[in-house]
Amino acid sequence: MPATPYNTDAARWQAVQARDPKAAGHFVYAVRTTGIYCQPGCKSRMAKRENVEFFDDAVAAEAAGYRPCKRCTATLADPGARRTALVARACRLIESHDSAPQLEQLGAELGVSPFHLHRLFKAETGLTPKAYASAFRARRLREGLEQAGSVTDAIYDAGYNSNSRFYASAGQRLGMQPREYRAGGVGATIRFALGQCFLGAILVAQSERGICAILLGDDPQTLLEQLQDQFPKAHFIGGDPAFERLVAEVVGFVEQPSLGLQLPLDVQGTAFQERVWQALREVPAGGRVSYSDIAERIGAPKAVRAVALACAANRIAVAIPCHRVVRRDGDVSGYRWGVERKRQLLARETVIT
Q: Which of 103, 114, 137, 177 is most buried, with most CB under 10 Å away?
């Protein structure tokens, strides 16, 4: 945020008390007791300091659940920003419920129809509200499994209503059973094979649920070590002829991404990461987006750095095409498997498409 006289809460409160019109546009203030936010020059009755909190802009205030003041018209002029704020509120509501709320319940709390909310949520994030809730609960479960306590406690703390309901989808959410995940993949079976493509060495790994890693590099042994570090206690099986045919399909896809990859992916990430990765998968071969573009698409326009971190955490090269993310000026930088490989992928996609 650029240096202004309104960078501290004390300065902002002084501007509110003075009803300083020059402060308009620098921040908004919200009143907890009324649920309304205003511009600093608003002529409404002065609120008590303990009931006031400040936000950088109206988008942040609406995302926190506040309504605009009709008197000072502290509204969002951009309809897109208003939609983003609504979806952000929906995300916070989903996260605040002990169990996944029904679409009708979410719509009622937000004051919109379930149909409109479903369509808007999917357009902004790439996920349905139900899918977002599932991903969020899965993230909470992973965090719980990594801490002390029983698996049962972690399941209920993550928002699952019963053991049986959770275990029915445990493999899909974790890629393996929870005790296996908690123990670093102990008991899980991961098939893998090494090969060569135009980018150098490639490792393809598959859990029981789908492709869980496509790694690129110069040294095959290093790639294998990276896979073992991810699941240090899993049971690894080297490629047999049947699996090597699958690897050939993946290599063919890497060589020509426009063909698509018709294999299931075992995507394991936080709710936010899964939103980013889903948005990336919707970028066509030959397309280019920036981190800001992806942040906008998932309804988190200020989370540009978090989007970059999610791209860096991606372990499924090309199939989750983080290589299609470039700087706003078109410059190529930042790629888990090396900038030069990123340039080669983009150049090949440009020629083929």
A: 137
Is residue 91 part of the annotated active site? The answer reads no
Q: Helix, strand, or coil here: 200?
A: strand
Closest alpha carbon to 296 in 315, 281, 326, 276:
276
- Per-residue model confidence (pLDDT) at position 139: 61
Q: Report residue 239: phi and psi, to 5°.
A: -60, 135
Length in residues, the chain: 353
pTM of the predicted model over 0.85 = no
Assign 68 to helix, strand or coil: strand
Active site residue 311: no
- Decide: 223 and 215 in contact? Cβ < 8 Å: yes
Which position among 69, 91, 212, 322 bears the catalytic label? 322
Active-site annotation holder among 38, 42, 72, 212: 38
Kindly report, residue by residue over 142-156, the tens digit of the pLDDT. Answer: 555 444 444 344 333
